[in-house]
Structures are given as structure tokens and as C-alpha cells.
Design a protein that fits this description.
There is one protein chain. By secondary structure, the chain is an all-alpha fold. Among the domains are: about 10-160, no CATH class; about 355-400 and about 420-585, no CATH class. Helices cover about 65% and strands about 0% of the residues. The protein contains 26 helices and two strands. Strands 1-2 form a two-stranded antiparallel sheet. Strand 1 (about 525) and strand 2 (about 530-535) form a beta hairpin. It is globular and about 95 Å long.
């Protein structure tokens, strides 16, 4: 911030000063801005010096603010990442020319200019900017030398309000308005969250579409936008929605929901979207399986809601459905292809070398959007593990006697133990054998199909995402064919796949930046007469992240009350195989918990840093309560 050479701040400051001299408005405007910027740089130098001298050299903070906690050593992970910009700044300033290309691309993409004349160097010779920098350093050095007089005087001259007070005054009314709006959804009931959203959407979408339709402000629909099969799909959806709304059984509602998804898939295929249709079909199948895993921890039937609430929900659902239907009717099938769509269709195959314009848009033209979605997808998997790692085992999988959702198995009159009827209902292994035989035959075929779909995605329907969903179906089949709850693959494999997939996609972007001058710019070449591009590597990252997310979902959602439960699998996703679930709620690692369990103070204990006294220094009642809490925790069964 002080702009001291040889740091990047010095290069940036000289660039700002040089740009001000060339600003429009004539020499007077340019030199006025130059002088004011130099004075501002003096202030920046002064408060940077105050931060360093006040924080590390003068040492008055502890005496002036004794209520602050004593400083302790920064954790290595935080220190390393905080130091990386500092360590990278010095060599980059010495060879700042390497930043010309990326900075130029950013400026050209941000401003309506065709080209930018940018020249980055640490040394520009003797000029007005260098003289101003020397004056700034001289005044800054004088401020540092006289700091014991100037800093207290400046603090006494400070007004009763400052910039933080102004910002707080501006934020306060906005915060009060936000708190008033939050009252609409301040409840755990999802209905309170859905109602404002559905009402607003119905007013905007339904009301706006109705106005456009009644006033004749919309063009005519294209011929052939509807077909006879649409009525069949509509009938399937209406029946499925009715069953979904009327059913009291969670299992029956899930089956009806899956029928709606299948009908949507048929509609998408009928509209000529094989990529989207195949994606929808695979996502629908995997989602229903995951819902089934969740159902094993929920009551068999829905609770009965108040009759008045049911009527209100029905009315709101009808209004929202009609509004959505009006919006679809009014806003689709009435305009031609846009200019950018025609450009993709006409020039996409020539530019990318691929005939599947859908896939080339996703991994080449709009690869940055896909990379953002991939990062969100990966963060969702990491967030699931992180959230589950903060809930203790006895709350995630409570024993039946305290679980309000527990439903005892219904009594079924069976024949004696050892008979076929008894094994069919009481022993899972017999029912799993046919599925295991099916997996042995279909898993290799699905792997081959996944590879083919991945390879052909540039020219035919397919790509990394669809291929990953096909590969994930192998994970689903392997999980369903197991006679007992067990993890699929190594414990840490899902996190490695998610993180590795995002890293591979990011490195592909960096490769394009270095070799082609643009982040995620595809680089093409021929290998044995076959044209290959780096977008194929990008698709590898997509494949790995999607596969890791599905594996994490099955391993965590499928954990029941057997040998491994949900919390243990969440912990093992981060730390590998463990003897049991960790008794932590703040993300402590096994080594940290082991250090905390030591009764004596040692080099590896963190009692002072955590502000928690060791057991020997606590009252006896506290130690007894902690021991009782550990005793109450459920004990893991023998493997």
C-alpha cells in the first residue's frame, strides 16, 4: 500500500500518476489530479507506516487496550496463505512485464476500446512520477521520524465522527428495512420461505404475461411449436401431480415425483434436445435414489396439516402453476434465433472443430460460466461434509428410544428362521445376490459407455457432465447391490475427486492464459492425426468433480444405524479411516482432539491459545459433566 520499490504497489502508483498527467481536460486538470494523488499517496504511506510501527515496533497496544486478548502464534495454514501475496509480489515487481498480457486482456474486456497501449516496468527512467515518488518517500520518512508527535496530534484533531460512522448511518436504514423483510421468513417452516417467493413470482410472471397477452403485445407463436405427444405428457404429469399431492405415503409421493421427471424427459427428447434430455434422465434417476436413502430416516407417512393450511397451500399452488403456465405460453416459441445463436451455429464448428454446438458452448465459448458452476458444485459437496462434521453423532443418528422419527418394523407373521420366506424379509444378502450379478454384467458396459460418451461429446450428444452421470450410475448400482451399508471406494476418494476436478479445470484455464493469452482459451493440436483440445482436459475435471459429489452423497446419505454412521463417514471423508466418530463440533482434527485430551500441559497442547483450562485446573463438577457427556455418547459396534 505504501508503494515502496521494488513492490507491485510502486509500479501501480507510478502508473496512476502517469495516467493522471494524460487525463482529459488539459494540462491544468492533469497536473491538479497529479498533485492531489501525490498528497493522497503521502497519507497512504503515513498510515501504512503507522500500522507497522504501531503494531510491531512501538508496542503500546497492550497498555492502551488491556482488555484485548494476548496475541498467539498464527496457525500455519493462515500464515502461509496470508504470506503468499507478499512473497509473490517481490519477484513479480522485478519482472512485472509478464503481467502485461493478462492486464491488457482485462482492460480490453472491461472498456469499450479496441486496443490498449500498456507498458509495465519497474524502472521508467527519471520523470515526473519518479520525482513525485521520491518526494512522497521523503515526506513519509519525516512523518515516521516525528510520529510520536504527529500521530497523537492527528488523533486529537480527529472529528467526533469518521468514515465508519458515515457508512454506518447509511447502512442503518437499509438494515432495518432488511430486518423487516426478514420477518416474513423468520421461521424454520419452509412454507414461510416459499410463500413470499411464489407470491412475487406469480405477480410478476403471471400478471405480466396476462397483460402482454390481453393487449396483443406479443408476436404470433411459431408453427409446429406443439405436437400431439404433448397432450400425453401433460396427462401423465397431471395424474402424477394429483397422486403426489394426495398421497400420505412418502414412498408413494417419491414414485409420483419420479413419474413427473420421466415425463419431462420425454418432453425434452420430443423437442429435439438429446443432451439436455439425457442429462435430465440421469439426474432424475440418481436424485430419486438419493431421496430413497433419505426416506429411511423419516417417518413412513406425512403428518397431517391443518385444514385451513391445506386450503391456502392449494390456492397458492394453483395460482403459481397458472402463472408459470402463462409465462411459458407467452414467452416461449414466439421469437427467432438470436444473433449470437446464429453465430454459434454458423461459426462454432469451424472455430472449435466440434459439431456438437451445445458442448462446445459449455466447454469453450462459455467455459468460464461452466467453471463457476463446477466450483459451486464442488463447494456443495465440501459444504455437506463440513456441516455434518459440526453435529455430534448422537444428534445425527439418535438411538431409537429418543428418535422422534423412528418407526419400528411392522410385525409380519413369518415362517420359522431358516426358511425362504424368513430370509426374504429379514436377511438382505439373499435379495442382493441378483443385483450383484446384474452389476457384474452391467458395470463394465456402463464404464465403456461412459468413456464413449465422454470422448464423442465434442461432435455428438455427450460430454464430461453426462459421462460423469453415467459413471455415477455404476456407483449407485454398487451401493444398491451391497447387502450391508458400506462406503463405495476409499473414504477420502470423494473429496480428492471433487478438489482434483476443480484444480484440473483451473489449471486448464491457466494453461490457456499462459499459451494463448486468455483464461480457459482452448488450445488445439493433432496427435496421431486426431485433433485434441485442452477442453477435453477441462471435461476431465468436470467428470471427476461430479463423480466425487455423487459418491459423497451416497456414502453420507446411505449411512444408517449399522457399523458406520453418518458422522463417522463425514469425518472419514476428511481424515481417512477412523475407529469411530469424532466428538467435536468445531472442525477439530483427530490430532487436535488428542492434544486436548492430554491432562498435562506440554509443547503440543493448546490450552492457552484456546482459552480453555486443562482438566487439572477445572472445578471437579466441570470434569464430571464432561465425563458424563462422553459416557452418554453412543458406542460404535464391533466391525
Amino acid at each position: 500500500m505504501a508503494g515502496v520499490p521494488p513492490m507491485l504497489g510502486f509500479v501501480s502508483k507510478e502508473g496512476v500518476l502517469a495516467a493522471l498527467l494524460e487525463s482529459p481536460g488539459g494540462p491544468l486538470a492533469g497536473w491538479s489530479g497529479f498533485v492531489f494523488a501525490a498528497l493522497a499517496a503521502v497519507l497512504t504511506f503515513a498510515y501504512s507506516a503507522k500500522l507497522i510501527w504501531g503494531g510491531f515496533l512501538d508496542g503500546q497496544g497492550q497498555e492502551r487496550w488491556p482488555e484485548d486478548r494476548p496475541l498467539h502464534t498464527t496457525p500455519w495454514a493462515m500464515g502461509v496463505f496470508a504470506a503468499l501475496p507478499i512473497l509473490a509480489g517481490l519477484p513479480l515487481a522485478l519482472w512485472v512485464g509478464v503481467l502485461e498480457t493478462p492486464v491488457t486482456r482485462v482492460v480490453e474486456a472491461s472498456l469499450p476500446v479496441e486496443s490498449v497501449d500498456l507498458y509495465l516496468e519497474l524502472w521508467h527512467g527519471v520523470n515526473a512520477e519518479l520525482v513525485a515518488s521520491l518526494l512522497i518517500f521523503a515526506v513519509g520518512a519525516l512523518v515516521i521520524a516525528r510520529r510520536r508527535t504527529l500521530f497523537p496530534a492527528a488523533e486529537r484533531l480527529t472529528a467526533s465522527w469518521d468514515g465508519a460512522d458515515v457508512i454506518a448511518a447509511l447502512i442503518a436504514p437499509v438494515a432495518r428495512f432488511g430486518q423487516t423483510l426478514a420477518l416474513l421468513v423468520r421461521a424454520d417452516n419452509p412454507t414461510r420461505h416459499l410463500v413470499p417467493i411464489l407470491v412475487a413470482a406469480s405477480v410478476v410472471l403471471g400478471g405480466g404475461s396476462l397483460v402482454l397477452l390481453t393487449r396483443g403485445m406479443l408476436p404470433e407463436r411459431h408453427p409446429g411449436a406443439t405436437a400431439g405427444v404433448d397432450l400425453v405428457v401433460l396427462a401423465i404429469m397431471l395424474v402424477s401431480v394429483y397422486v403426489l399431492c394426495r398421497s400420505q405415503s412418502r414412498l408413494a409421493a417419491t414414485v409420483a415425483l419420479s413419474a413427473i421427471g420421466v415425463a419431462m424427459t420425454i418432453q425434452i427428447f420430443g423437442l429435439g434436445g438429446p443432451d439436455v434430455g439425457l442429462t435430465q434422465l440421469l439426474v432424475e434417476a440418481l436424485s430419486i435414489l438419493m431421496i430413497m436413502l433419505v426416506l429411511q430416516k423419516l417417518p413412513l407417512r406425512f403428518g397431517r396439516a391443518p385444514r385451513m393450511g391445506q386450503r391456502g397451500a392449494l390456492a397458492l399452488s394453483l395460482v403459481a402453476g397458472v402463472s408459470a403456465g402463462l409465462g411459458v405460453w407467452a414467452l416461449t416459441g414466439r421469437r427467432g434465433r438470436s444473433e449470437i445463436a446464429d453465430y454459434y451455429l454458423a461459426n462454432g464448428p469451424e472455430i472449435t472443430g466440434g459439431d456438437n454446438v451445445v458442448n462446445t458452448i459449455l466447454v469453450e465459448f462459455r467455459a468460464l460460466d461452466t467453471f463457476g458452476e463446477l466450483a459451486v458444485l464442488g463447494m456443495a459437496g465440501v459444504a455437506v461434509v463440513a456441516v455434518l462434521s459440526t453435529v455430534r453423532d448422537r444428534y445425527l443418528d439418535p438411538p431409537p428410544e429418543v428418535d422422534r422419527n423412528y418407526v419400528a418394523p411392522p410385525p409380519v407373521p413369518l415362517r420359522e428362521r431358516g426358511t425362504t420366506a424368513y430370509r426374504a424379509l429379514e436377511e438382505a444378502w439373499g435379495n442382493a445376490v441378483p443385483m450383484q450379478l446384474l452389476v457384474q454384467a452391467t458395470a463394465p458396459l456402463l464404464v465403456i459407455i461412459s468413456a464413449i460418451v465422454f470422448w464423442r461429446g465434442h461432435n455428438s450428444p455427450g460430454g464430461g457432465f453426462i459421462a460423469a452421470l453415467i459413471g455415477s450410475s455404476v456407483v449407485a448400482l454398487m451401493y444398491l447391490s451391497a447387502a450391508t451399508d458400506r462406503q463405495i471406494g476409499p473414504a477420502r476418494a470423494p473429496m480428492f475427486l471433487i478438489g482434483g476436478g476443480v484444480v484440473v479445470a483451473a489449471l486448464t484455464g491457466v494453461l490457456g492464459l499462459v499459451l494463448a493469452g486468455s483464461f480457459l482459451e482452448p488450445i488445439a493440436g493433432y496427435v496421431l492425426g486426431i485433433k485434441l483440445t485442452t477442453s477435453l482436459i477441462f471435461d476431465v475435471g468436470v467428470y471427476a468433480a461430479v463423480l466425487g459429489l455423487v459418491m459423497a452423497a451416497f456414502n453420507l446419505l446411505g449411512a444408517g444405524s449399522g457399523v458406520e454412521r453418518t458422522r463417522e463417514r463425514a469425518d472419514e471423508s476428511s481424515y481417512g479411516e477412523l475407529p469411530g466418530p469424532l466428538e467435536s463440533s468445531r472442525g477439530e482434527s483427530p490430532s487436535q482432539l488428542a492434544a486436548r485430551s492430554r491432562t498435562k500441559v506440554g509443547a503440543r497442547t493448546t490450552w492457552l491459545a484456546d482459552g480453555v483450562p486443562p482438566p487439572a485446573a477445572r472445578p471437579a463438577a466441570d470434569n464430571a459433566g464432561e465425563q458424563a457427556e462422553r459416557t452418554d455418547a453412543p458406542v460404535k459396534e464391533e466391525r
